[in-house]
Every structure is written in C-alpha cells, then in structure tokens.
Amino acid sequence: MKKIEGFSKLTKQQKIDWLCETYFSDDKQAHSYFEKYHNADENLQKLHDEFIENAISNYYLPFAIAPNFVINGKTYTVPMVIEESSVVAAASRAAKFWESRGGFKAEVISTEKNGQVHFMFYGEKTDLECFFTKIKPKMLADAQVITANMEKRGGGITDIRLVDKTSELANYYQLFATFETLDAMGANFINSCLESFSQTFRQEAVNFPEIDENYEIVMSILSNYVPECLVRVEVSCPTERLAVANLDGKEFAEKFVRAIAIANAEVRRATTHNKGIMNGIDSVILATGNDFRAVEAGVHAYAARSGKYQSLTQAFVEDDVFHFKIEVPLAVGTVGGLTNLHPLVKTALQILEKPSAKELMQIAATVGLAQNFAAVSSLITLGIQRGHMKMHLMNILNQLGANDAQKQYITEYFKDKTLTYRDVSAVLESVRHLN
Ligand code: MEV
C-alpha cells in the first residue's frame, strides 16, 4: 500500500512508522537508523525539522577544513561540505602550492542581480512603451515598503526597463529589473519586488484600455543567470616553479594550457572540467548555507554564454610566466536565509571571519580555481585514479567492514601500489585475523 493521503498532516513519528512498515522488511532496524540520526538536542532537531516539509531525519555530510588559502594577501581557513573523498585534500594541496607562489588574486567585478516580469502583449508597442514610462515611478514607489530597509543600507532596485523579446517569441515582453542586494543573496527580496511590479502593472492597466485588453502577465521571478554578479581569481608564477612529478616546469605549463584548450574545444571534457571546479565552489557554498542549485545553474549558463559550453578557467604562458584564472558569476549571501539559522553555517562564517558577500564570492571562486588546478595537474601527470582511489580506500574498507588494525595494515600495504576494489578486498581477506 504505497499511496497515502494526507502524509504531511501525520506527526513525524507517524511518518517514520509508515515508511518503515511500507518499505523495510526489518522495520526495527529502519526505525533505529532514523533514531540514530535524530539529534538529542530537541531544539536543534526542531530547527532542522522546520527548514522543510515532511522532514523525517537528518542527512549528514562531512564538514571539512582546507587551510592556508592566501587570497589577496589574507590567509583563510576554508570550511567545505562535500562527500567526495579527494576534494578537500586536492584543495588543500593546491592552496599550499600557491601560498608559496604569491597566493590567489581575487577581484569582484560586479554585484548586480536581476529578475523579470515575463508578459505577453498583443497591442501596439508604442502604447506599451508609453504606459511603461508612465507607471515606472509608481512601480518604484509601490515597492518602497519592500525596499526601504535595503535602501537604508545602500542597496535596492537599480533599474527597471521594458524589454522587447518578440523576436524570440511572438508577443513576449519583459520588465527587466536589476538589484543591489549587498550582503544578502536577495532571492526573497527580488521576488517580492517583482511581484509588486506586476501588481502595480495590473492596477494601472485598468485605466488604459489599449493595455488592459491586450496583456497577460505570465510570471514574475528572479533570474539565477547573473553574469553581472561576477568574480575573477587568478594565480601566476614563472613556469620554472611548476616542475612536478615527471614534468619540468615548462612542459607542465604547456600541457596544462593544452588541457584547458581541450576543455574549450570539446563539450564533453568541458563538462567534467567544470564539474571539478564546482566540487570546490559547491562545497564552500554548502558550508556557508548558500543555494548551490542557484549557483550551479548560473555558473553553467555562464559557461555556455558564447553559444558553446566551455571551460570556466583559462590558462596561458607569457614571457615564461604561467597564468591561470577563473571568471564565474556567484550570487551568494552572508546574511539572511540559512546563514542566521543553521548553527554550522554560522560556525563556517565565523571560521571565514564573517566575510561580506563580495569576500565570499572571492573565496568560493578561489576554491574552484584551486580544485581545477589540482585536478588538471593530476590528469596531465600521474592520472587521477591514483590519488582518487587512495582517498577512496577508507570508503572501500568501511564498506567491507574492516576494523582499525586491518585499515592500518592495508593503508600501509597500498601506499606505493595502484589499488582496485578487488585487490583491497583480497588483501583484507588475508588479514581478517588482525585485531
Ligand atoms: C571528479 O569529481 C572531478 C574531476 O573529474 C575533474 C576533472 O576531470 O577535471 C577529477
């Protein structure tokens, strides 16, 4: 009996009971999992339960630290939330590498966010233009109740304009609004302003028959495409300082530049290349309570801005100096939303010494660049699997139920060997007697 009416009205315990009975043959064990992940601090548990509808448990991810990130001369200890084994180690390695080569140079280029009222208009364009010019001051005035506080702090609505999109879709127009939301991500603020614009539009249209009979507002929503909320980070050093493993510095730089050229030329490589960058960015975004889906959507759209999906990072050599940089749009906040609510998010922001949103843009983009440097460096030298599987070893051992003594023996055993799941499993069987 898998269909259920009124699930959201059940108590949390009833929801768990129903799930355990419906989906688990050993319903005692299933209950015990949910109980284990229930926080003993009831207030904390309630806080988490109230983030979303139908919460029945907590889902833990590791909260890790990547130290020694030098950005614009300041050293950051970066909190990262991610499940993938090798990401934090790679970020830390890249941070250390660049620390002794001048560190990361970051710059916020712009901080403008945007949203649209999407509507259809079937009348004369000149009538619409005239109507828009008349009601624009009223739209701004009516939104004052929403914008007053933001304006006091120096932000608010920066512009509203009428955009003709009829060449892309018949009768389609937009009210295109731009915003400065300071240290807030600003999603609620922007959406409230846009809905207020729609309301003013409707109210005013009543007095203009040439408009009133000819429009349909379809939706009012912020855009997660924020190419005007942009941050750039770069590193550089003489190529001779890049010597690693089996390559001298010049060879390494040439190979690295070629690897980036491939990511620019080939969408399949670009996707994986950018995924590696997002390993770094997302883990900072998650640790600081920001919306990683918004960031992901915006970043990938930006990667395709030329009409072709390409690398978010660029590399080149000039006068024997290797340059490597990233440019990404990041709409993030360090106030509002989860930042004031989730205790670990507050802790993460404290570790970052309470950054502004601009500073957080720089930190997240830096970790993305570092991650890409680490990944591409591995790929063009020893390959990715060696490091990856080493980090993954503990997951394999946990899966196979190894104890501490067995883990220690096997970690040592595979120190200088390439490992596979099968080999680990075979060696573990031979040392099952260790305690
Ligand atoms: C794995 O999570 C990320 C990489 O595949 C990124 C890359 O290939 O550049 C290693």
From TrEMBL:
Transmembrane segments: none annotated. Pfam families: HMG-CoA_red (PF00368). Signal peptide: none annotated. It catalyses: (R)-mevalonate + 2 NAD(+) + CoA = (3S)-3-hydroxy-3-methylglutaryl-CoA + 2 NADH + 2 H(+). Keywords: NAD, Oxidoreductase. Pathway: Metabolic intermediate metabolism; (R)-mevalonate degradation; (S)-3-hydroxy-3-methylglutaryl-CoA from (R)-mevalonate: step 1/1. Its EC number is 1.1.1.88. Gene3D superfamilies: 1.10.8.660, 3-hydroxy-3-methylglutaryl-coenzyme A Reductase, Chain A, domain 2. The keyword Oxidoreductase applies. GO terms for biological process: coenzyme A metabolic process. GO terms for molecular function: hydroxymethylglutaryl-CoA reductase (NADH) activity; hydroxymethylglutaryl-CoA reductase (NADPH) activity. InterPro entries: HMG_CoA_Rdtase, HMG_CoA_Rdtase_bac-typ, HMG_CoA_Rdtase_cat_sf, HMG_CoA_Rdtase_NAD(P)-bd_sf, HMG_CoA_Rdtase_sub-bd_dom_sf. Belongs to the HMG-CoA reductase family. This is 3-hydroxy-3-methylglutaryl coenzyme A reductase.
